[in-house]
Amino acid sequence: MANPKLKSVTRPSQNSNVIARRKPAAVKTAYSLAEREEIFRRFSVQRPEPRGELEHTNPFTLVVAVALSAQATDVGVNKATRALFQIADTPEKMLDLGEERLRDHIRTIGLYRNKAKNVIALSQMLIDDFAGKVPETRDELVKLPGVGRKTANVVLSMAFGQATMAVDTHIFRIANRIKLAPGKTPDEVEARLMKVIPQHYLYHAHHWLILHGRYTCKARRPECERCVIADLCKSPEKSWDVPAPLVELPPQVIGEAVE
Ligand code: SF4
């Protein structure tokens, strides 16, 4: 008589057959590869050289600016950092400035007390552990106080030219709204976008999506009549399906962003 305790055990050979038959996980997006190619081709015509709107002068000031930008607008951060970076554009100079005077510079930015603490602590860590230089790997960057995965991705992309996807509020909204890479968390959206965006568009995709979200596919009311992908878009919120003329946009004006 068979031992009932063994009934639920799957033999290794059966198990490996099941695994062999399992299809690879489908890439979760509402768009075919041809549609995704076309979406990013149009973004590339509109903004051939997209750039971030946070002002900075070197990798250190970029790390500081991105760390200060959490729950704040780029415009607000730029206003505060213009004077700050003239006197403190290295970790050493930031420590010389000190936490109290740093707080005075950034007090118009939300959560400034905590952010000032973090900037001083990250400056100290850069000197102690990284010879005063901003590290070039994500694992090292996220060790810095106040630097999370999103900040690290922005720094890797803007300072070191790596293709990354820093999922901010605009990217998270667009990925879900138009079903390009739906996900419940920023990490899920990041992983999906890295898979669904055609490789040759990946480097600039982060900025294209942010700028599309900031100026066209806005949070409260997407301006579909001004959208170059209105015919391709599969958002239930879409109010227009004729694409706007595909022309290169004037250079971005820093300070224009409102969201
Ligand atoms: S058509 Fe409307 S909803 Fe779709 S991407 Fe454009 S602005 Fe956003």
UniProtKB/TrEMBL annotation:
Keyword Iron-sulfur on entry: yes
Annotated SUPFAM superfamilies: DNA-glycosylase
Listed cofactors: [4Fe-4S] cluster
SMART domains: ENDO3c (SM00478)
Enzyme Commission identifier(s): 4.2.99.18
PROSITE patterns: ENDONUCLEASE_III_2
Domain HhH-GPD: 68-215
Broad EC category: lyase
GO biological-process terms attached to the record: base-excision repair, AP site formation
Keywords assigned by UniProt, alphabetized: 4Fe-4S, DNA damage, DNA repair, DNA-binding, Endonuclease, Glycosidase, Hydrolase, Iron, Iron-sulfur, Lyase, Metal-binding, Nuclease
UniProt catalytic activity: 2'-deoxyribonucleotide-(2'-deoxyribose 5'-phosphate)-2'-deoxyribonucleotide-DNA = a 3'-end 2'-deoxyribonucleotide-(2,3-dehydro-2,3-deoxyribose 5'-phosphate)-DNA + a 5'-end 5'-phospho-2'-deoxyribonucleoside-DNA + H(+)
UniProt GO molecular function: 4 iron, 4 sulfur cluster binding; class I DNA-(apurinic or apyrimidinic site) endonuclease activity; DNA binding; DNA N-glycosylase activity; metal ion binding
Nuclease recorded as keyword: yes
Positions bound to [4Fe-4S] cluster: 217, 224, 227, 233
HAMAP family assigned: Nth
Name of the molecule in the record: Endonuclease III
